């Protein structure tokens, strides 16, 4: 850790802390139909971790929308997506699931002196908050200082976004030596490698332990259930870079 003793812990949301099944894809389907005026035959792949604006761009192009139309349609879909997800709040609660160990891990990390937990996610901020609040997780995170795809559709850039917000609020300069990402996907690993933060990868999503390790994750865990193991990993990857 740094002299100030603060460590920024950047949590991914989907398939790391919770899983909402096909609700995201249903909302993409509804948003496309309302903005484009027809049904989408091809939906974004599950569990990739790609940012929502880039997923929307692919959704448009994969369903035959001309590239010249994308700059006009994409902002409309980005604006509409959170509104339509909000209409599924009850579905989030009833159909979504908390992943094993998520609540205990969040509680314990939040309770550690000097740890500053927030999120770096491919979700738009309103979508991220809807999901976290549906599972009563928002209280374990400082969502004010997170990095969201509302800020930048290039996910690695969100590390610096969160670091700058955290510095402004907490008075510590956050760098790769006192920042860590906890996530489940290859995009989470890439976010750390390119964005400048070590990555603790959790094989709770669609990506295997071996794939996460090969991609360059600093530590790979089977799940969040062993909370002491998670805390040891956070300490290890930040001390190594101090």
UniProtKB/TrEMBL annotation:
Keyword Hydrolase belongs to the record: yes
EC number of the protein: 3.-.-.-
SUPFAM superfamilies xref list: HAD-like (SSF56784)
Any one GO molecular-function label of the UniProt entry: phosphoglycolate phosphatase activity
Tagged with keyword Plastid: no
One Pfam match: HAD
Keyword annotations from UniProtKB, A to Z: Hydrolase
Biological processes, Gene Ontology terms: DNA repair
Annotated Gene3D superfamilies: HAD superfamily/HAD-like, Putative phosphatase, domain 2
PANTHER family: PHOSPHOGLYCOLATE PHOSPHATASE (PTHR43434)
Designated name of the protein: HAD family hydrolase
Species of origin: Streptomyces sp. R41
Taxonomy of the source species: Bacteria, Bacillati, Actinomycetota, Actinomycetes, Kitasatosporales
């Amino acid at each position: 850790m740094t002299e100030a003793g603060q460590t920024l812990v950047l949590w991914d949301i989907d398939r790391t802390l919770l899983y909402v099944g096909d609700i995201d894809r249903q909302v993409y389907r509804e948003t496309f139909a309302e903005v484009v005026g027809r049904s989408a035959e091809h939906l974004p792949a599950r569990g990739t971790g790609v940012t929502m604006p880039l997923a929307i761009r692919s959704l448009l192009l994969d369903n035959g929308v001309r590239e010249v139309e994308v700059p006009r349609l994409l902002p409309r879909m980005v604006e509409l997506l959170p509104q339509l997800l909000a209409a599924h709040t009850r579905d989030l609660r009833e159909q979504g699931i908390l992943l094993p160990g998520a609540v205990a891990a969040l509680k314990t990390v939040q309770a550690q002196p000097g740890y500053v937990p927030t999120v770096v996610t491919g979700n738009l901020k309103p979508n991220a908050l809807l999901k976290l609040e549906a599972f009563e997780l928002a209280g374990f995170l400082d969502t004010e200082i997170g990095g969201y795809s509302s800020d930048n559709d290039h996910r690695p850039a969100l590390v610096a976004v969160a670091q700058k917000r955290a510095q402004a609020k907490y008075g510590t300069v956050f760098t790769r030596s006192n920042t860590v990402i906890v996530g489940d996907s290859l995009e989470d690993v890439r976010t750390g490698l390119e964005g400048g933060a070590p990555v603790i990868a959790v094989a709770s999503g669609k990506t295997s332990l071996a794939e996460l390790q090969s991609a360059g994750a600093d530590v790979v865990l089977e799940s969040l259930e062993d909370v002491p193991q998670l805390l040891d990993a956070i300490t290890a990857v930040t001390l190594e870079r101090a």
